[in-house]
Amino acid sequence: MNKIYSKLAVAFGLSTVLLTSGCATQNIQTYKEAKPTLDMHEFFSGQIDGYGMFQGRSGEVKKRFTVDIDATHEGDDVIVLDEKFDWADGTKSQRIWRLTQQPNGQWKGTAGDVIGEAQGEVVGNAFHWQYTLALPVDDKVYNVNFDDWMYLINQDVMLNRAVMSKFGVELGSVTLSMHRNKN
Length: 183
Fold this sequence. Notes:
By secondary structure, the protein is mostly beta strands. 14% of the residues lie in helices and 59% in strands. The protein has helices at 2-22, 40-43; strands spanning 46-56, 61-74, 78-87, 92-101, 107-110, 114-123, 126-137, 140-154, 157-166, 169-180. β9 and β10 form a beta hairpin. It is globular and about 40 Å long. 15% of the residues are buried.
């Protein structure tokens, strides 16, 4: 009987380690010295072109899209991102983000399909934020969590990778390349 309990304890301990390590996220402070330094107001200003894809957890590309982002400012603290998506299957969608810089330097964001507020922080060249999105699939809407990382490559290019999950299980990821339009 003790052997059974020992095996169960080992199995439980191993599964706990695997589950908690699978939920771990990188530390934003890693990017403290990374250059160029991301200035949200500077990068998110004017027209931005984006090219992206959604991959299922196996890595298979499920959807491709382009996005036109019109980035404007309301005062010193609010950035408005009007995102117009063109999906490879011919469908179109729109999301309007309102990003508000907090007195402590962190960011909060809202959009029509975001549940509650997105919470974010900029350190060095990186922006990390997390939020819950109401995602329509067929005739249902699922609330899914996004762990979203953006990295400034140079003054005109930012790369974005967001992992989508539900109940701690990864469903897939979004990769997006954003380019400031100089026209």
